[in-house]
Specification:
- It is built from 19 helices and two strands.
- It is mostly helical.
- The protein has three domains: about 1-105, no CATH class; about 130-260, Alpha Horseshoe (Serine Threonine Protein Phosphatase 5, Tetratricopeptide repeat); about 310-395, no CATH class.
- The chain has a two-stranded antiparallel sheet with strand order 1-2.
- α13 crosses α14.
- The longest helix has 23 residues, at about 1-25.
Length: about 400
């Protein structure tokens, strides 16, 4: 749109200059009073020759017309006025300036050397990428092998759980525990196979959260690649809950994967603007949303972070001890609710553990530590973060 407007402006400027140049060199013929009186004089002579006007009357009228012609000729402008350009360089300068300006604008907002890529071509390319997507098995075959050192005690417990589930294949609780356990060990293929059994057992009662869990395990097993199987699982999750934000985020990644960043921008813009700011996907969206908008052809400026402003901090400092304690309690409760609902990295769990200790609720800190250690069992780097948080909170040595 901007390029078209600039092109129209430059075109009108050039045409206007050409017309103006031509008009300035045009001779304009003027028809004044002298010409009118001369015509009257010729008509009077014709009337006299036809005998329509007597000689004495003719002389009197001719004298009067002659007098008026002389008077008019003294006030008359020249019959021809020729406009000439003041400088022969104006037109060439305007043409050169327009050319240089157009070249500069195109170099800034255009794509020199790149062929046109109509929307239809982009859609066709996206359809081709989608049609040629790797299957889940092929994507998993390309994924690197999990090299994380496992806790032998925990591994032995998971083996026993697998055997128990084989004996009771319709035990929903057992399947759910096994899927989480396999995931914690990094056995994502086994985890999503177990989660698939949960979906079969649930049938139409399967929730959006359960379908998203299946999609997420498929993606992790494929080292971040979203296969058609994972895409369908995401769609099933969104069909059951269109506001499933984690599914919307993953679907945005999928659209970018198949060459549709415009749809990624649409989904991620909604997530960014609705928050919450502490959601795990917000940092990535903030880093990429404006680039996505540029590719999608949208003029978009990301809203500022929803963190506390200087005014918020100043207001917090003015609170009484009791009021500040209430505010901190509400913030910790919000963090705990998010982790319980959506999960989060080990650093967030460590923050919650320390926050409970600051509030003096060591029982809650201890329970959170135990839950987090089960969640991140086998992941040594995450376990170290949790152990450091426990030491800082004073609930373990």
């Amino acid at each position: 749109m901007i390029t078209a407007a600039l092109f129209l402006f430059l075109t009108l400027l050039l045409i206007g200059t050409l017309l103006h140049h031509r008009v300035r060199r045009t001779k304009i013929q003027l028809t004044g009073d002298v010409d009118i009186y001369a015509e009257h004089m010729r008509g009077l002579e014709t009337d006299r020759d036809k005998g329509l006007v007597a000689d004495d009357e003719f002389e009197a009228m001719r004298a009067e017309i002659g007098r008026r012609m002389i008077s008019a000729s003294r006030q008359e402008l020249p019959k021809e006025i020729e406009y000439k350009s003041q400088s022969k360089w104006i037109l060439p300068c305007v043409i050169i300036t327009a050319f240089l300006l157009g070249t500069f604008i195109y170099s800034q907002i255009g794509a020199p050397g790149r062929p046109d890529l109509p929307i239809e071509s982009r859609y066709a390319k996206s359809d081709a990428l989608r049609a040629n997507s790797l299957s889940q098995l092929d994507a998993e075959a390309l994924a690197p092998t999990n090299q994380v050192k496992q806790d032998p005690v925990y591994t032995d417990l998971v083996k026993k759980l697998r055997n128990a589930v084989k004996l009771r294949p319709n035990d929903l609780k057992g399947l759910e525990l096994l899927a989480k356990s396999e995931s914690r060990l990094g056995n994502y293929a086994a985890a999503h196979a177990t989660q698939k059994n949960i979906l079969k057992l649930q049938q139409n009662a399967a929730t959006s959260i359960e379908w998203y869990a299946y999609a997420d395990l498929l993606v992790m097993a494929a080292n971040g690649y979203i296969s058609p199987t994972a895409e369908e699982a995401l769609r099933q999750a969104l069909q059951r809950n269109p506001e499933n934000k984690l599914a919307l985020f993953k679907m945005g990644i999928y659209f970018d994967q198949i060459g549709r960043p415009d749809r990624t921008f649409s989904l991620w813009r909604k997530l960014l603007e609705t928050g919450p700011e502490n959601a795990p996907y917000i940092p990535l969206i903030r880093r990429t949303i404006e680039d996505l908008a540029l590719v999608a052809g949208v003029n978009y400026k990301a809203p500022k972070s929803g963190g506390p402003s200087q005014e918020d901090v100043a207001n917090a400092l003015e609170l009484t001890t009791t009021e500040r304690q209430v505010m901190i309690t509400e913030m910790v409760a919000g963090l705990a609710e998010r982790l319980e609902k959506d999960g989060g990295p080990s650093s967030d769990w460590a923050q919650l553990i320390f926050s409970y200790s600051v509030l003096g609720d060591n029982n809650a800190a201890q329970n959170t530590l135990q839950e987090a250690m089960i969640l991140f069992a086998g992941l040594e780097s995450d376990m170290e973060i949790l152990r450091q948080a426990a030491v800082s909170a004073g609930i373990t040595q």
